[in-house]
Write a structure and sequence with these properties.
It contains four helices and nine strands; from the N terminus they run E-E-H-E-H-E-H-E-E-E-H-E-E. It is α/β, with parallel strands linked by helices. The longest helix is centred in the last third of the chain and has 17 residues.
Length: 155
């Protein structure tokens, strides 16, 4: 299997504008865990990424709520139930009015998005065109994503 990196989506803290974390930069994972957290459900890619980062830094959390959808987690933040750690792209999933979205500085706290294909095999013309269209669209429309190196990594 060959994975060709396409985009990366930074993980961010979502919290109300009047929260004590507002204005704290850089925002570190250890700063966030001192508050009740709203996380996505166990088994989701976002939750797994957050749990690995917490384990790597030896941090424990106080879990306030779990949400099946990122938009629900944002709504829970708006309702004052805690702060959430979500990918930056979650700003497209829900209204973030009155909510601060601040990137978290922590090693490995980035969601990688890529293409998967059989190693050593070329894509069909239709799949190649689809990948090209995604790259064209990704630039202007997906401003919150960062472009990744197109170098392939084997797994």
């Amino acid at each position: 299997v060959e994975v060709i990196d396409f985009l990366c989506d930074r993980m961010c803290a979502f919290f109300p504008a009047d929260h004590p974390l507002n204005g704290r930069r850089p925002l570190l994972l250890k700063d966030i865990v001192t508050y009740p957290l709203i996380l996505t459900a166990r088994g989701t890619s976002v939750r797994s990424l957050v749990e690995r980062a917490l384990e790597k830094e030896g941090l424990e959390i106080s879990l306030s709520c779990e949400a099946n959808y990122m938009s629900t987690a944002v709504g829970m933040v708006r309702a004052g139930l805690g702060i959430s750690v979500l990918p930056e792209s979650a700003v497209d999933a829900a209204s973030c009015e009155g909510i601060v979205v601040e990137p978290i500085r922590a090693a490995g706290l980035v969601r990688r998005i890529g293409f998967i294909r059989k190693a050593g095999r070329s894509l069909s013309p239709a799949a190649e065109r689809f990948a090209l269209l995604l790259r064209e669209v990704a630039g202007p429309t997906l401003a919150h994503f960062s472009s990744m190196d197109t170098a392939a990594t084997k797994s």
